[in-house]
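Lecture 7, part B: from sequences to assemblies.

Below are the input chains for today's worked example.
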Amino acid sequence: MRLKKLELYGFKSFAERTEIVFKEGITAIVGPNGSGKSNIADAVRWVLGEQSAKILRGASMQDVIFGGTQRRKPLSYCEVSLVFDNEDKSLPLDYAEILVTRRVYRSGESEYFLNRASCRLKDVVDLFRDTGIGKEGYSIIGQGRIDEILSRKGEDRRQVFEEAAGIVKFRARKEEADKKLARTQENISRVDDLLEELK
Ligand code: ATP
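Predicted structure of the full complex, as structure tokens:
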């Protein structure tokens, strides 16, 4: 599986319909400060289901829609597609090419598509689970992430490795279970108190 192409329309600084083709081998994107290099990485994260405006470097989710310039009006929606080569069928869909699309309107309404058929965010997340490509995957290493990895604090580095090893989800589940247990224990002691009063 390989990312072949990224198509953008109205995403951040990409007001025009834009196609970025990734040929086999190394592709480097270069440009002056503020020219939109990081917006490209944000677009990939966004299609894969990123829900945090902060991670996408905005204040609200609608900030990803082209906001206009002195010469150009803001747009009412944006759309980004990723085109994957799936000749090796490493993604569990019977297509040689997979197109994943996300669209969002200023009203906040969000839509996802797999090979142009409407789907849920969950379908996109499930498709990329355990491939390393999902929004939590390590296929995108942001600038802050590099600082975390290089950090001298053992705890920070450990967090990165735990996430890569897939331990974080178990830790989160354990925390959830601990909270549930604490709530249940509270309920039991309340019931005990009531029983005591009824005696
Ligand atoms: P650097 O090299 O400094 O990290 P960069 O090439 O990564 O820069 P980006 O951060 O990707 O640049 O792009 C920033 C530009 O995108 C800014 O000019 C900003 O105004 C523009 N931009 C971001 N969001 C929007 C939006 N919703 N509408 C229009 N332009 C936007």
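Note for the exam: The chain has a mean pLDDT of 89. Keep this in mind when comparing with the next example.
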